[in-house]
Task: structure prediction
Amino acid sequence: MTTPALTPPIATSAAPILPKVGAEDLKLRQASRDFEAHVLGALLQPMFEGLGQAGLFGGGAAEAQWRPMLVAEYGRTIARAGGVGLADSVLATLQRMQSAPGP
Result:
């Protein structure tokens, strides 16, 4: 009798599985992800400025006021989903700077 092939567990979340780290590393990881989210929001902003008066929901002053928050949330969502790799580079740099000897 043969045994069935084992399959790897299926991740239930879109977030990557991260190794256990200390509180300071978690703060650095969060700061780098927040930075990436801010950069992504800034990069996405020009795409939404050209929508004019007939924007996502018909335009108007209310849409103009809420649009920056919507774009910022898009940036946070992209960063939480793995981003574009900027957070990893920032995190590595922060960790390297933190472990470097002082002046």
Notes: The two ends are 67 Å apart (CA to CA). The chain has three helices and no strands.
